[in-house]
Structures are given as C-alpha cells and as structure tokens.
Amino acid sequence: MFGYIRINKMDLTFRQFDYYKGYYCGLCKYLKENHGEISRFSLNYDITFLIVVLSTLYKIESTITEERCIVNPLKKKMRIVNEITEYAASMNILLTYYKLEDNLYDDNCIKDKLAYNIYKPKLKLAYEKYPEKAEYIKHELQNLRQLEQENSKSIDRVSNTFGHLMGEIFVFKKDEYEENLRNIGFNLGKYVYILDAYEDLEEDYKKGRYNPFTDYINRKEELKNKVDRLISMSLGIVAKNIEALNLEFNKAIIDNIIYSGVYLRYKNILEKGCENNVQ
Fold it and tell me: Is 74 buried (19+), middle (13-18) or exposed (0-12) by CB count in 10 A?
C-alpha cells in the first residue's frame, strides 16, 4: 500500500535476505491462493515487516518450501507460510478494500471503482475472521476522511489517526506484548502517513487534493526539517519498543529494517522532495 518499511539489502547476508524474501513470497502465494490473483497487486513490504515481527515474537512454526514463481520461473525461491501469514493477508485485504472505498469519496475515478468492485467479494473472508479489526480499520479511515474533509492542518491529528489504525493491526492478540506491539504499529503508522504526505505534497498541490503540508508548499526546507524531526521521534519509539520485545531469530532482519532500511528510505525522500521546490 505504501512500501515505506523496507530492508537495506546491501547490509544483509544472502541467508537473511532469502528469509526476508521468503516471508514476502509466502504472503504473495497465500494472497493468490486464498483471495485470488487480484489481491497480489496490493502486496507490499510494510505488511511483510508485520509478518517478520509477529512470526519472530511468537515463534510460530512455519512451512518452508521452494517453488518457482511466474516472475522468475527459472529459479526456485523460498516461501515461508504460517499462521501470521494468514492474519497479515487478511489485514492487507481489509486495508486495501477500505482504502479503495475511501478513495471513491475523494476522486471516484474509474480505476478505483473497478478495483473496489473486484475486491468487494474478497472482503467477506477477511471480515468474517476478524470482524473487530475490520470495523476498527473502517472507523479510523472514516475519522481520517473527516479530518481531511475539514482540511485539517494538524499533522499530529491526521497521522495519529492512521497510527491508531496501524497500532491495532500490529496487535495480534491480547497478551503481555500488546502495549509494545501497539506502540510499534502506532509510530510506524505515523511515519508512513507523514512521509507519504511529504512525498505527495507537490502532486497534491497541483491537483488541488488534500495534504496537511500545503501551507509549506514554498517553505520546503522548513518542512524538511519538521518532517525529519517528527519521523526521527517516531522511529526512535519504534526502536525502543522493538528492543523491549527481546527478539532473537530474525533479529538481524528486523534491525536492518528499523535502523537502516527505513532510515535510508525516508532520508532519500526528504532530499528528493527538497530538490523539487514549487515556485
């Protein structure tokens, strides 16, 4: 959906990268087999991170296979599937469906309308399995839409709303890990929303779409510093709560994402955005 939570491939061993891709490919396969081919178009690295964290934390037993893929049919790839894969796939379907529903309120474009109608039958399975999560996601996206309709300039209010949504998704079950997982999801949600708004500012401004940063359209350096500060705070809280979980297996992959991949991703976007000043 966004793709802001990524690895830094250069700092991973071949084995670590294969495991990371294994979770990603496992999710891709699960979506295809249980929600249809169309669901794979919503596949993203943000949800893959959720799978890695929860699988590591709960030490979930996984099925590991090597299979060929239509993307690269000549070489077999590792695929890792477990209970968390199913949960993450359902969250991915719910997020995509309700986001498409929300998009129709904004643009009502033909592409979103077609995708929405295709996804509608896919919603049933995910909703029936996780009705409370589904209603929470829908409710928070409605709150977000209300803030956007009010043209809210409070980045805290709008990013907190998306943060609450992501926090709920990261809470797999009610247990001693709930607070840490909710904090991780909440602050990653803030990071994703803030960075997405920053990256889309110029296009949103030209098309007259909502963006909480429109007042900074000709103050890019000031905005860059503001966004850098906000994101640094959120990622610091994410790191603190990750460390509190005392993860072992896959820790190198998770550390790579939090301390390197995400950092490089947002720094690159900040520098790129600052180069594209609107006069």
Answer: exposed
